[in-house]
Amino acid sequence: MIDFRYHLVSIVAIFLALAVGIVMGTTLLQDPAIRSAEELTRQLTADKQEQRGQIDDLRSREQAGDAFVTTLTPKLVAGELTGEEVLLVEAPGAGAAQREATQEVLTDAGATITGRLSLTEKFFDPKSGGVLDGLAGQLKPAEMTFPTPATAYEKAATLLAATVTTTDPAVAGTPNAATASVLGGLETGGFVNLDGDPAKRATLVVMFAPDVPYEGENAETQAAAFVALASGLDAGGRGLVVAGTVPATGPGGAVTAVRDSTEVAKRVSTVDSADIPAGRVVIVYALREQLAGAAGQYGIGTGITAFQPVVPSPAPTTPQPTPSSSDSGS
To answer: Whole-model pTM?
Structure first.
């Protein structure tokens, strides 16, 4: 019969074996395990330092490239938009720094900035759609007709286009008497904010997209509103470029919405690199292309056709005849 002492001895033997195994294991494996861990740590540290060096190098190259383009920008755009009136339209969430830098480049290109039309959150809020629809009907000239059927945003776009844009250079820079109350009414309604004198009609429009995509249950409606306004303003003038950044080319982005709208993308150009100096030069070139009746999708994000429009070749010069000896009188 197995007694208590047998159980006790068995238990003691088990624990003793475990203790011996642990001691032997840690003694035999301690040095290799530590050496392996130390070697892995050294390797990871070296890799991190190498990658950090590569990142610093890329940043230095980027800064040098940006500085180079910034220096050359006045020459690159000189005279490209001489005589054109340009309106800036800013959606909620668009970067102010990008808009200010773009405005400077447009001025370098010879354009006159008529003003800035800043759309409010209320403009894109579906809950305010009924109010916007009613206000558009109230403010429109008697002879103006809206497309049938038309959303509130399409009606607002048609009305704004008649107010702030024109295809006729002869009347550019002058207000449309028939729509004199439109901007004031929309501003009073909380749908827009005004800077400068956007009522002085522009021939071209640069529309700044939000830096981040539209999200949530209203995302689709907000993107559609942005596209409707871009399409309407483009139709009212001689061209429109949507300017944004790469995040705006992702799902729900305003730039993506324009590019995905086949009919609108045939007429409206987009540039998704407005946050870098080269991209702002491209905005000028895209506007020039719009004046020529063409459009394209430019930048570095998804859905582009190229980084920039094709630069027109300079007109060939006619060689002058070399004077003959008789012509020179010698």
So the answer is: 0.81
